[in-house]
Amino acid sequence: MDTINRHPERSMLDRTQLDAVLDAAAVGTLATVVDGMPWAVPMLYARDGDRIILHGSTGAGALRQVASGAPAALCVALLDGIVVADNLFNSSANYRSAVVRGHLTALTREESADALNALSDALIPGRSAEVRGHTKKELAATLTIALPISAGGWTVKVRNAPPSEPDGDGGAWAGVVPLRTVAGAPIPAPWVDGDSPVPASVGRLAGEAAVV
Q1: How far is CA 140 from CA 13, 143, 173, 197, in A?
Q2: Distance from C-alpha of 45 to C-alpha of 174, rounded to nearest angstrom
Q3: Could you give the angle at the alpha carbon of 70 between the alpha carbons of 49 and 149, nearest 5°?
Q4: Is residue 52 a contact partner of residue 46, using CB atoms and an 8 Å limit?
Q5: What is the pLDDT of residues 142-186, one digit of tens each?
Q6: Tell me, what DSSP letter sits at residue 125?
Q7: How far apart are CA 104 and CA 18, in angstroms?
């Protein structure tokens, strides 16, 4: 699993590089096989040390299957730039990607509360301390699962380079168009008073300039 054959020079072998890619993204695609057919769904996730936390409804049959030990893989990709070459064949993209595979386990109700807090705080740091705790009913309706990060069970691939040099006269423009995702100003829900202060966690997420 940890060997990349296509463009092996882009393979990152250090575990810290895997953590950096996983921590930079918030959505991954969980894939497995259900009744002989491929199954894949994008899901919010968070890395919690040496495991990846995901969650969904207890009524989701495919999630129950992976929670019971069916092999699965989580794929994450970040698009950092469009690489514009002097021809279409050599045009490409700068990106970071990771694949982690293994066997997920279902967490107990007691473990789920802490794991769901960790997931929330990975998306909005500090938010779990600003709101009420999980109710028993909510925990009973939520299937929280963990995918361990094990040696030999992951790959990371990164491209961060300009386009290749032209093989002709080089007359066409070439370069990189960087891409990034940024947070905008928070938009309150319709039932929230317009004078209500933005919570500290949301303000940090959006950036101080966005909430002034």
Answers
A1: 39, 8, 58, 32
A2: 36
A3: 20
A4: yes
A5: 999 999 999 999 999 999 999 998 877 767 899 999 999 999 999
A6: T
A7: 18
Closest alpha carbon to 162 in 61, 81, 58: 81
Tens-digit pLDDT profile for residues 180-210: 999 999 999 999 988 899 999 999 999 854 4
pLDDT in tens, 40-52: 999 999 999 999 9
CA 205 from chain centre, in angstroms, equals 16
DSSP 132-195: PPPPHHHHHHEEEEEEE--TTSEEEEEE---PPPPSS---S--EEEE-----------TTS-TT
In DSSP notation, 23-91 reads HH-SEEEEEEEETTEEEEEEEE-EEETTEEEEEEETT-HHHHHHHTT-EEEEEEEEEEEEEE-SSTTT-
Residue whose tokens read 């495919």:
62
